Every structure is written in C-alpha cells, then in structure tokens.
C-alpha cells in the first residue's frame, strides 16, 4: 500500500466550493489563487463538478491541490483523474477509495469523527485527516483524539471553522483548515470571495507567523 504524503503548502487552507457552477469556476479559482490559497475542493454534489474542477486545474500551478469533495466511489476517482484532479476529500472512511486515490497519485483527506475512524483512515494510507464537523468536537475533542494518532498525518478541522477560530485550533497543533460557507456560498461573486479569502489568509499568516 502506498501513501501519498500531504504536500508542504505555504498555507494549509482548503477552499470548499459547494454549489459552485462551472461558469463561475475560473473567476472564483483565480481570486482564491491570488489570495494565497493552494488547495481547492469542489464537492461532487455541486452542479457539474468535474467541469468546475477541470477549469480550476487549468488555472492553477502544478503544486496546487485541485480536486473533489464528497467523493464516495472509485468511479468518482476515475472521473476526477480524467480532469487532472490531485485531491480527494471524502465525508467518510472507505479504505478502497483511499487506496485507489493513492494509485492515481492524489492526496487524500477522508472525513473522521472518532479515534476508530481516524486510525482506520491512517491504516488505509490517508494523506491527512478531516475532523468533521469540527465545531461539534471542538479543539478539546480533537486534541484528545490526536493523542493517539501518529504525528506524520496532518489533522484538519472542517465544519464551522473560519478565521475567527484559527487561534483556538493552533493552540492544539492544528494548522490545516477547510473553509466552506465562511468563504463561499452559492451565487457569491468573485469579488466577495476574494475579499473573504484575503481576510482568512491575513489571519492565518498572523496566527502561524507567515
């Protein structure tokens, strides 16, 4: 079993663009990249998600993670690979999907909530873990589970997370965040997303000394 290592990004911020339409994708991706984001996820329950992913991939430098969220099947991975995606995010832990994503060379971030799920994902070769919904566990809950996890797998907080609580998570050693509705909601303009992205990056840089 091969494990794809989570890349060393300047900022471990994943933009979650649930509901993005393909015609919006180029402008939204551009403002996120300009703001300093190096990971973009389009959940597969968005309209025509693979076209949006393909559009973002064309704009982004090779080192940037561009991929899909809510990935549930190996068939999804085939489509994702076809459009150049190199990031797989899922709401659950399905070892076969994690293994297949690794075969495609994709970084993987499965969703976990318990120690059992987290350790199962680690054994399956996950690149990073997505604690979701992080707002339900809180920093204290995530810290308790992190105590039994290997330190070579980054831990991300997703769900109810924004720049307002970066500092809280930083105190327990978390520096990877998925930003959804605090960054993008369906119909938001590129200008609006750009403003929110720059605000999030500014706080991230302050908290982590970038």
Q: Topology, pairings included?
A:
Layout: E1 13-16, H1 25-35, E2 39-43, H2 49-59, E3 65-69, H3 74-82, E4 87-90, H4 95-103, E5 107-112, H5 115-123, E6 129-131, H6 134-146, E7 155-158, H7 166-170, E8 176-179, H8 190-208
Parallel strand pairs: 1-2, 1-8, 2-3, 3-4, 4-5, 5-6, 6-7, 7-8
Helix pairs in contact: 1-2, 1-8
Structural commentary:
The protein has 210 residues and is of the alpha/beta class. It is 41% helix and 17% strand. It has 8 helices and 8 strands, in the order βαβαβαβαβαβαβαβα. It has helices spanning 25-35, 49-59, 74-82, 95-103, 115-123, 134-146, 166-170, 190-208, and strands at 13-16, 39-43, 65-69, 87-90, 107-112, 129-131, 155-158, 176-179. It has an 8-stranded parallel barrel, surrounded by 4 helices. The longest helix is centred in the C-terminal third of the chain and has 19 residues, at 190-208. It is globular. The mean pLDDT is 97.
């Amino acid at each position: 079993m091969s494990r794809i290592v989570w890349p060393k990004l300047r900022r471990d911020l994943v933009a979650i663009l649930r509901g993005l339409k393909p015609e919006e994708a180029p402008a939204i991706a551009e403002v996120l990249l300009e703001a300093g984001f190096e990971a973009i996820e389009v959940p597969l329950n968005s309209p025509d998600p693979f076209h949006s992913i393909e559009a973002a991939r064309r704009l982004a430098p090779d080192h940037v993670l561009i991929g899909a969220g809510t990935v549930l099947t190996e068939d999804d991975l085939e489509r994702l690979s076809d459009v150049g995606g190199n990031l797989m995010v899922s709401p659950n832990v399905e070892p076969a999907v994690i293994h297949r994503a690794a075969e495609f060379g994709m970084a993987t971030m499965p969703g976990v909530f318990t120690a059992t799920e987290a350790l199962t994902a680690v054994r399956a070769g996950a690149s990073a873990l997505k604690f979701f919904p992080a707002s339900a566990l809180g920093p204290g809950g995530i810290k308790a589970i992190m105590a039994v996890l290997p330190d070579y797998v980054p831990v991300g907080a997703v769900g109810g997370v924004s720049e307002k609580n970066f500092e809280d998570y930083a105190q327990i050693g978390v520096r990877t965040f998925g930003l959804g509705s605090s960054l993008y909601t369906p119909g938001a303009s590129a200008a609006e997303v750009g403003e929110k992205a720059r605000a999030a990056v500014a706080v991230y840089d302050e908290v982590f000394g970038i």
